[in-house]
Design the sequence.
């Protein structure tokens, strides 16, 4: 999609520190990390949010979670990590291309705030 930041990262038009790729997903480090490991996992195809992805491409939706788990394990956090989908501006979504936040490596308090 034109003018989508994460589509441009997927295509390589905008650089990012990519840590893992699969057939349907790309995982790269967040520019403004909120934890020692803060990786965004995105589908290669453009969907505005997690529910739209789940409806349109359920296998890619599952692959996001599998990819996040693989990255967590690769970084030494196989058992303790948080996955977050912010959905809607009111919930803090700023990029409207589905992305799963993987956070790990610090005390992840609950509730998340
Ligand atoms: P959201 O707020 O939509 O849930 O998450 C968007 C995330 O994208 C934020 O955590 C933000 O730091 C990250 N981000 C914004 N622009 C860029 C960028 O150009 N490159 C990377 N790697 N991350 C970005
Ligand atoms: Zn996009």
Sequence:
């Amino acid at each position: 999609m034109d003018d989508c930041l994460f589509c441009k990262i997927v295509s390589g038009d905008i650089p990012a520190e990519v840590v893992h790729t699969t057939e349907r997903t790309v995982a790269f480090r967040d520019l403004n990390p909120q934890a020692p490991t803060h990786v965004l996992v995105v589908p290669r195809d453009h969907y505005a949010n997690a529910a739209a992805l789940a409806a349109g491409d359920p296998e890619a939706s599952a692959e996001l979670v599998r990819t996040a788990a693989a990255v967590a394990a690769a970084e030494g956090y196989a058992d303790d990590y948080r996955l977050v989908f912010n959905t809607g501006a009111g919930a803090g979504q700023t990029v409207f291309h589905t992305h799963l936040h993987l956070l790990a490596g610090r005390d992840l308090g609950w509730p998340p705030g």
Summary: The longest helix spans residues 58-74. The helical segments are 5-11, 50-56, 58-74.
